[in-house]
Amino acid sequence: FEGLLYYDQTEWNVLHSPGVNRMTRLYKDQSGVIWAGGNNFFGRLSANRANGSLELDLFLYENNHGFLGEVTDIFEEDGKVIVVTPVGNEYLKDYDSDLFEVRKKDDYKVEYYRNATVNKKITLDDGTCLLATTGLGLVVLDRNGEEKYCLSRHNGLCDNNVNSIYVNDMGIIWGATDNGLFLLDMHNAYTQFSDTEGLE
To answer: How does DSSP classify residue 185?
Structure first.
């Protein structure tokens, strides 16, 4: 609810969003650019040329192109970044970009698993499917769609509402919940980061 929390391999840092609004979506495109969206703003991350620190380059926010709404998804289609919001471009004025397109949320079907909303779905190279859900935690399915196991508060996860997941180049899964972050190695135990580890 302040911006982007990131780890630079030494310490945790916060990159504040405009007006200290919540940042709700991140997306890394095929060229490696990280796009960020949240409550009435959309932009991308860049490195400061002087010291390499992260900065947020804003494309859309209330003071330049009007009301954007809450960014609910970011993805790529035909080489263009697609930004999804509940209102689409209805209240935006004088914006035109070859880099991205704003679309309305109603155009997309919400996916469910056992009556729980699926916030993010990732299929691994071995066919294993990971579901970040609202209410059930992290659900792991085999290549046939059968449930292998589920990580939730019942077995130690920090929260049952998993908002997003990301798999890094080493196959490590990072997850963001309503109540903290977790790290999962599919072949090992998972770790949760909380105030015990110094993360508020």
So the answer is: -
Convert the pLDDT of each residue in 91-127 to its tens digit: 778 777 888 888 887 656 678 899 999 989 999 988 9
Q: Are strands 73-77 and 80-85 parallel, antiparallel or unpaired?
A: antiparallel
The answer to whether the pTM exceeds 0.85 is no
Q: How far apart are CA 121 and CA 187, in angstroms?
A: 19
Does residue 150 contact residue 136 with C-beta atoms inside 8 Å? Answer: yes
Backbone dihedral region for residue 99 (phi beyond 0: left; psi -120 to 50: alpha; all else: beta): alpha
8 A C-beta contact, residue 74 and residue 61: no
Q: How far apart are CA 200 and CA 193, in angstroms?
A: 9
The token pair at 120 is 């993010």
Assigned token pair, 66 = 């009007």
Query: Which amino acid would we find at residue 127?
Result: G
Q: Tokens at residue 168, please? A: 């890094």
Candidates 150, 144, 115; CA nearest to 131 is 150
From the number of C-beta atoms within 10 Å of its C-beta (0-12, 13-18, 19+), residue 53 rates as exposed
| Secondary structure (H, E, C), 18-43 | HHHCCEEEEEECCCCCEEEEEECEEE
Token pair 């085999």: residue: 142
User: Which position has the token pair 């508060």?
Assistant: 153
Q: Which residue has the tokens 């390499």?
A: 52
